[in-house]
Amino acid sequence: MGFLDHSTNNIILDAVLTDTGRQLLSRNDGSFSIVKYALSDDEVDYSVIKKFGRTVGKEKIEKNTPVFEAVTTGNIAQKYKLRSISVPNLVRLPSLGLTGVTSDTVSLNIVNTRSSSVTVEQSIGGDQIVPVELIDQVFQVRVNNLFLQISGQRPVSIDQENIATYLISRASTLNTVTNGSSITMTVQVKSSLTTTMFSTYGIAGDKTKIRSYISVAGVQSGAVKDFLVEVSKT
User: Fold this and answer.
1) Which CATH superfamily is domain 95-232 in?
2) Residue 195 and residue 185 in contact, taking contact as beta carbons nearer than 8 Å
3) Residue 96 to residue 99: CA distance in whole angstroms
4) Between residues 32 and 67, the one the model is more confident about
5) Are 59 and 65 in contact (CB under 8 A)?
6) Coil, strand or helix: which one is 20?
7) Structure confidence at residue 18 (pLDDT)
8) Where exactly does CATH 2.60.40.10 map onto the chain?
């Protein structure tokens, strides 16, 4: 759902069903029911508040921010979902990052390095610790199912674009400094990825490599971390 142009002081709502919602509705058996919803602020530029202050900045955002139309692809409909937080003095939100690596690129090949262990950890800046209600208990991992998989895990869904979604529970212990949670997963090249596929999916100018991004999102915090996986032919 999206807010359309309201320059005439009329608020117009544009609501559509996602592709998944349409599939459920098409069953026509009475099982389709909307039981929850989420709000997001994907379009908001909060630097306006920093520049003009809370009062004027809020007014400028409300009156001047162009808002996306509703889209039917669920996995891109909302990226920055709103959260209700009871901590009154929280000035930073948790973020996700890769640990134990020097870059945000994981290098694999289809010959002798078909998998790699990756740790994604939740942290927060300053001297704060992650509030209890924002500690991620479950992480949503989205992987291109044509090339990669998470070893030992089964995807909960695979969409029409071959993006597999995994739900992975956090490690049993939290970071002793930040109180953040983490997951360690093994990213693995799929056995169905053969040398002939590189000519089709290889990067422009170098058909010996395939590049694909993995997205990790904390279900409780909403924080997202994307990192690159580069698979070589040799």
Assistant:
1) Immunoglobulins (2.60.40.10)
2) no
3) 10
4) 32
5) no
6) helix
7) 79
8) 95-232
